[in-house]
Amino acid sequence: xxxxxxxxxxxxxxxxxxxxxxxxxxxxxxxxxxxxxxxxxxxxxxxxxxxxxxxxxxxxxxxxxxxxxxxxxxxxxxxxxxxxxxxxxxxxxxxxxxxxxxxxxxxxxxxxxxxxxxxxxxxxxxxxxxxxxxxxxxxxxxxxxxxxxxxxxxxxxxxxxxxxxxxxxxxxxxxxxxxxxxxxxxxxxxxxxxxxxxxxxxxxxxxxxxxxxxxxxxxxxxxxxxxxxxxxxxxxxxxxxxxxxxxxxxxxxxxxxxxxxxxxxxxxxxxxxxxxxxxxxxxxxxxxxxxxxxxxxxxxxxxxxxxxxxxxxxxxxxxxxxxxxxxxxxxxxxxxxxxxxxxxxxxxxxxxxxxxxxxxxxxxxxxxxxxxxxxxxxxxxxxxxxxxxxxxxxxxxxxxxxxxxxxxxxxxxxxxxxxxxxxxxxxxxxxxxxxxxxxxxxxxxxxxxxxxxxxxxxxxxxxxxxxxxxxxxxxxxxxxxxxxx
Length: 485
Fold this sequence. Notes:
2 domains; single chain
């Protein structure tokens, strides 16, 4: 058996050193009895003889044990005097003022340890890939559709007539038409005019794409309020609106339309989303689009996103929701909150991270969202036409942000709102499909050329968008792909 001895040495005010030494047990060499064996030898003599044989080995073990504990003790006592140098290696070479700063930046106080390493005042290590978490905020929508009422005379008191070019004589039809720069410049005026706004047919009424069945066209023509989304190229899952959050009134009077291509329809059917005889999957009315107008699926998706007034010609209001989101709020409550209460005709949220087009250009190129040369050409064109950097300190800034989060748009189908939607689509048709690059330019130019008839735009907070919908990831992450030509 062994005996244990503890040596406690205080290093400083907050650290104690405990050295535990195992000492060999003291044994007696005299037997407690004197039993005589048959050979005449005492048992004690046999015990002494056996111990004598091991005596030399035991001495060796004791020496090694003493040496071991001697070096261990020497090590711990050296830590008492030089431990601070071991802990803060290099700080003794710094000047006194810099040494204090060095200690402050390399030590956690007891309060910081209590709060944990996730405290906001503790700087994250460089290279950390942890994203900022963006949370929803409270949105005081009405409790029921029974408590809301469309206000009278809240929109533009100076309406104008806006028509759309249906055909061109070109032998090579383009969905967006062949708009000249002169026509483009004139289209920014809020006057009685006919402009390019998609769905342009060629000579002899040659189609240019985005073809719909007559049955679907008839259904959409009768919609007074629409909620629409799209999935092309099997790029996403089908996310149905939360039916428990939608009132029976909205279920009967609001059209929920999901635009799909044949490929996506087959993919969704294989996943269990099979339309019924009327073409419905839950609340979604599936509308199949044939002859897609663009090879770039992102650009094709801008057709239902921006041109809801063309697809739903009788609608007074529309809501666009990206396929990565699920609607969790009654659409009429959304229209009431973002349009009627604020007397707005177009509502969109600001971007959750970026507010300047300069930053958006850098981010798109960094992530290879589109061909870099095409992005540069579009950006230089806008700069030459007066686009300025966003100044967050400017109290007279026309917008709280120059970069929108375009996955959720609420519109009243007024002439001014329809004009802005056409202009924004034409920029996407002419340049890149990255609509966040063209939003601020389009809005600012429209406002500058029509000071007496401004677009009543409500740019709301991104947290409000998150509160009224549920966000998911796309089925296909497009970021690893090479940028389109």
